[in-house]
Amino acid sequence: TGIVHVVGARPNFVKAAPVVSALRGRGAHQSVVHTGQHYDDRMSAVFFRDLGLPTPDVDLGVGSGSHASQTAALMVGLEEEFTRREPGVVVVYGDVNSTVAAALVAAKLQIPVAHVEAGLRSFDNSMPEEINRRVTDRLSDLCFATSPEAVGHLAGEGVATDRVHLVGNPMIDTLLDNLDRFDADALRARFELPDSYVAATLHRPANVDDPDNVARLTGRLHTIADQIPVVMPVHPRGKAAFDRAGLGDHPGVRLLDPLGYLDFVALTRGAAAVVTDSGGVQEETTILGVPCLTLRPNTERPVTITHGTNQLVTEDDLVQALAKVLDGRPESRTGDDVPPLWDGRSGERIAAVLSGWVR
Ligand code: UD1
Ligand code: UDP
């Protein structure tokens, strides 16, 4: 009985926090299952501390592996957990392997599935996340969409309209809830960062898995660092490759461990621009008004381009695109032209629908 939230990876925690909090406000019976897909303190526990998320009721400790072995281990662990807890509904977040594994297991146990951040599409099946998104939406009884085009994608795939709710973006709830806590000056002092810098974060397989690619990217980042310091909290996925490529050898490059949520958004807020391949960072920079260069051929989040500060860049045009952005940084914006319903109330909207679903 009750609502079971399944989270496993860094972006999941940021999305779940406002939903868990809104349901808590309604006195809902809920529990949080952590799959353990991410497990380092800096990829996991720090988010629970920063966001006031309740300690997970259980951590399945699944850890890393190939897609098949990780997904299989996730499914075995989640099947046991769901069989024991008998959830009234399972809530899954985003597009990571924990998301699709939980949706598959719940659907086969005939437990309703609610997907937060449904309907995003990059139309690029070379991204594991795109496969996870499509399968999860297919299996979901409730689809919570962050943007109108996500609603359109679901309609186009034949999902009944009464299953789809446009609720806005819970990741932006978390951002707005914590705006007073992102202290760029304090972060700068603590890490002895320069006044002006570009923040970088890269972890997509297409960018960081191939050593030749990492070497080329390192060259570009060094060219940027000739002009303006680059600060990069390094995701564990690319760490060894960037170290081998000598990214940190340039005096203008500052490599950090992955940052906790409050520190990372403070870093973003204080940056002249951000270079990223993260999904969530495209959205956060849109609201913070910080220019975002996304090193990808496509995005499942086009509202961050039409309503935000995001642009897609190739490795070849990165340096020039950044120079342009640094020449005329757009005014910081708040509230005017932001995507619809990115207003800090998404968790409440999701909680209202979920409360009607489980009694
Ligand atoms: C996962 C998600 C990706 C998401 C990202 C957020 C999938 C398929 N991918 O990618 O969509 O954008 O999380 O950060 O679900 N590792 C550690 N410590 C950790 C976790 C991972 O060192 O706490 C290392 C391991 O070497 C592991 C590698 O990172 O093999 C990749 O981890 P994994 O969870 O498989 O995928 P991510 O690249 O983190
Ligand atoms: N983030 C963080 N520390 C970092 C990098 C990112 O706290 O060093 C936050 C970021 O602000 C956003 C979330 O993690 O809230 C995005 O996660 P990530 O980029 O790992 O995954 P994606 O969004 O690409 O799936």
From TrEMBL:
A Pfam family this chain is assigned to: Epimerase_2
Classification via InterPro entries: UDP_GlcNAc_Epimerase_2_dom (IPR003331), WecB-like (IPR029767)
GO terms, molecular function: isomerase activity
Gene3D superfamilies documented for this protein: Glycogen Phosphorylase B
Keywords: Isomerase
Family: Belongs to the UDP-N-acetylglucosamine 2-epimerase family.
UniProt protein name: UDP-N-acetylglucosamine 2-epimerase (Non-hydrolyzing)
Organismal lineage: Bacteria, Bacillati, Actinomycetota, Actinomycetes, Streptosporangiales
